[in-house]
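Researcher: Next sequence.
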Amino acid sequence: MTFKARIQPPPVEGLNEVQRKVYDATIKVLGAPIGPRMVLLKHPAIVQKWSELAAVLKAASYPASVRELIILLAARHWDAEFEWYAHEPNAVKAGVPRDAIEAIRNRRPAQFADAQLTAVYNYVTSLLDKHEVDDATYDAAREQLGEQGLIEATVLLGHYSNVALTLIAHRVALPDGEPSPWGSDPVRGLTP
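Model: Next structure:
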């Protein structure tokens, strides 16, 4: 596997304790030294705090399906292939409906039978697409997640937008041989 990012990680033998912990955790989760944290290893303080925030957000008060839906929405909004690649399997495992995943991939409105996923989808897409949230959408999300959950969801969206921008700016590539989740057209997706 060739690492193709604009910023290469430091040599493994030169990693300090913080860097090595992040490196080992990445290998455990992704199976290889790939992804945005490999770039961030060049800045130990940021990679440590970023990893700590990710851990807090992973333990959020809502189910994994909500977390993974938010991550996929951020990934598709920013066209962050690696983010989608890393989280689509998690979304399926967490119970995000496959037809909703395909709708998001293809930039079509997603439908959910679940009221919580519907409220989260509406809240997140409003933030990403309109840069605002009307009172009804906000109130529906707060009712479904509670105030703490709504705070967590908003920070999660911001964090994974940060992840997406890191991936894009530093050209963190998909593993060798992995096709783009968007097909041949990263902007419009798979559907003409």
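Model: The longest helix spans residues 135-169. The CA atoms of residues 65 and 94 lie 5 Å apart.
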